[in-house]
Design goal:
By secondary structure, this protein is mainly beta. About 5% of the residues lie in helices and about 50% in strands. The protein has a single domain (about 5-655), classed as TonB-dependent receptor, beta-barrel domain (Maltoporin, Chain A, Beta Barrel). It is globular and about 70 Å long.
């Protein structure tokens, strides 16, 4: 089947593990393609062509790595993104296990999670959502770090993670993966794809996932939440002879998740504290592409998502609904040296609570955006993008981004500068875990804004690839939780969300080394972060909590396709400043070690994966349960380490 999506999938197979590339959302080819056919088109950048290197840096987790991580954690994508340089998956709820994604130290709520370029999981992806997305049908993952509001609006202040789905080949294909863990977890995932006729192909992905509760230190508090989840996602791809193509998808997910105290266990106040979240999510999206002339293309895309929750926080219950929608249209054009795009978009985001209606909101944001890519020479190119949004609550917001590339021979030098905004909501990390019952309604909150910049230098020689990145971010009006003076409490509210004084400042560096020798791949990475915020009491600076200054990773993988795979990984997390923790002010450093093995016979693969070989667990040092309930309603400290201990999972993957 001759379409854009098939070309992307084919290119994925040809690209080395570390590739930065640009995309053509519309499937156009130009004079560069014949010379550089082994470069992948990606879609996280809004505009681009198949060129040697794009001005906008887009990091790629390729299909080979996706398949490896799917063996380690078939139920969700947390493992897939967590082991990428500069990316940290931060646990936000010790009770339910939910987590968000922090890019280069920026707050997790600033990361926009996309599926095939569409916000199918909402504008502000709920932390629990990361644990509800299986990697079964992913072809690759694209990551843009730093302010990307010029490309995707206010939800992408900290960057973008774009999950690219597998696309059907010309023949029927499918697979089933069965997995079980030593912690009594089970996963069954399926993927089926086939052409319907010359113009249409389809795929369907489904999964069933379950986990039994685990109290690893026998203190009555569940260290691993219990859950059952079911997901299904069909996709349709259509193209006609004129080059027009259409992509449609629908997704459904239902989950019940339980944490908190075990049956008959109580907290230090003598009462049990159950925490539960039942979730139902429905979403749909489309992308339509139509060539107008040989040089001009029309693109129309849209999505809608509705997510319903039933919450239990001890004796407090609530039901709520999150809604989001996007409709967007753009025109793009190409010439020998220029590529341009202009478009209009309308985004909406809403929340409605049955019991806490004071927090209901509806954000409506029409916007105009544009992008211009210019290739000055074989070695020099640049990309300029800008977006103007008219937010119904936070007014006019202008978000620019500029990227420059200089690439002589094997050396690549990039510079990037961007600005953006984020529309605050009640759902910062502490409130997601404790609910809204003790929170004052939001008043006089300003939008959060950030300026980000980076310079990275990459060098490739033979089978060796190296890169170093220097980056900086300044964030204003960060929203944070503040305890209300007890003497002023009359309505039962004990905390409020305020804009933090001064700036949060993040400075850092990333180092990456990749080497391939025959069937052996070696990857090493290091991340340094200096993240601080203004101390409201002393007017000095203090470190941002849960942000390790030093972290590093190493992976060695020996793989012969169709035969065997053997891998070892080691990840180091340095000390972190802690807040609201009565037991300590600074965490310990720790190592995470893992082993993965797979052997394949024809179409059947058997795999075994051992995680956390050193059995690192935060509750070995002290309890995560507080001595008294926090003002927000939380009963636990933050998770700065791991909470699951040594775990083995094993299973079989059958392809047909």
């Amino acid at each position: 089947m001759r379409n854009y999506y098939s070309k992307v999938l084919l290119a994925t197979v040809l690209v080395p593990a570390m590739t930065y590339a640009s995309e053509d959302e519309h499937g156009h080819e130009d004079h560069h393609q014949e010379k550089k056919i082994e470069k992948i088109q990606v879609t996280a950048s809004r505009l681009g062509r198949i060129v040697n290197e794009p001005a906008t840096r887009i990091e790629l987790i390729n299909g080979e790595e996706v398949q490896e991580k799917a063996l380690m954690r078939p139920g969700n994508i947390s493992m897939l993104v967590a082991e990428t340089g500069g990316v940290r998956v931060q646990n936000t709820s010790p009770a339910l296990g939910s987590a968000n994604i922090r890019l280069q130290g920026l707050y997790g709520r600033y990361t926009q999670l996309l599926s095939d370029g569409l916000p199918l999981y909402g504008g502000q992806t709920a932390s629990i959502g990361l644990l509800q997305i299986p990697p079964t049908d992913l072809a690759n993952v694209e990551i843009i770090k730093g302010a990307a509001s010029s490309l995707y609006g206010g939800s992408a202040l900290g960057g973008v993670i774009n999950l690219i789905s597998r696309t059907p080949h010309d023949e029927f294909e499918g697979e089933v993966l069965l997995n079980a863990t030593s912690k009594n977890g089970q996963d069954v995932t399926t993927y089926i794809a086939a052409p319907v006729n010359d113009d249409i192909s389809m795929s369907v992905t489904g999964g069933l996932h379950s986990q039994k509760e685990q109290d690893l230190d026998d203190d009555g508090w569940l260290d691993v939440a219990e859950y059952t989840r079911a997901t299904v996602r069909p996709r349709l791809y259509w193209q006609n002879d004129s080059g027009a193509n259409l992509y449609l998808t629908v997704g459904a997910m239902t989950e019940t998740r339980n944490g908190g105290t075990k049956d008959e266990a109580v907290m230090p106040d003598g009462d049990p504290y159950k925490q539960q979240q039942d979730t139902t999510r429905l979403d749909t999206g489309f992308i339509f592409d139509q060539p107008i002339t040989e040089l001009i293309n029309l693109n129309v895309r849209g999505s809608a998502m509705q997510q319903s929750h039933d919450h239990v926080y001890g004796v407090v219950t609530d039901s709520d609904q999150h809604d989001s929608a996007l409709i967007e249209s753009s025109l793009s054009g190409y010439s020998d040296a220029f590529a341009w795009l202009v478009g209009v978009a309308y985004q909406s985001e809403g929340f409605e609570s049955d019991n806490f209606s004071a927090f209901n909101y509806t954000y409506q944001t029409p916007g105009l955006f544009t992008q211009l890519d210019y290739e000055a020479s074989e070695a020099l190119s640049m990309s300029l993008s800008a977006r103007n949004d008219w937010h119904n609550e936070y007014g006019t917001q202008f978000s620019p981004r500029v990227s420059v590339l200089y690439s002589p021979n094997n050396l690549t030098v990039r510079g990037s500068f961007g600005q953006g905004f984020f529309a605050p909501t009640p759902f910062i990390e502490d409130i997601e875990d404790a609910g809204l019952s003790r929170l004052e309604p939001l008043e006089n909150i300003e939008e959060e804004t950030a300026t980000t910049a980076s310079v990275d230098i990459s060098y490739a020689y033979g089978e060796i690839e190296t890169s170093v990145t220097l980056f900086a971010s300044d964030i204003d009006n960060v929203t944070e939780l503040e305890t209300i003076d007890n003497s002023a409490i009359e309505n039962g509210k004990t905390v409020r969300i305020v804009n933090a004084p001064g700036q949060s400042e993040i400075r850092g560096a990333e180092l990456l080394l990749r080497y391939r020798w025959d069937d052996i791949k070696f990857t090493a990475s290091y991340l340094y972060l200096d993240a601080s915020k203004q101390d409201a009491s002393s007017q000095g600076r203090e470190p941002i909590a849960l942000t390790p200054a030093h972290s590093a990773g190493m992976v060695i993988m020996w793989e012969e396709h169709g035969s065997h795979l053997l891998g070892f990984e080691a990840y180091y997390t340095g000390t972190q400043a802690l807040e609201n923790n009565p037991y300590r002010d600074t965490s310990d450093a720790y190592w995470h070690l893992g082993l993965l093995g797979q052997i394949t016979f024809d179409n059947i693969s058997y795999f075994v994966n051992a995680e956390n070989l050193l059995n690192v667990r935060q509750t070995k040092d002290e309890s995560i349960v507080l001595t008294e309930q926090a003002a927000s309603g939380r009963w636990t400290t933050d998770i700065w380490s791991r909470n699951d201990g040594f775990t083995v999972n094993a299973g079989v993957r059958i392809k047909f």
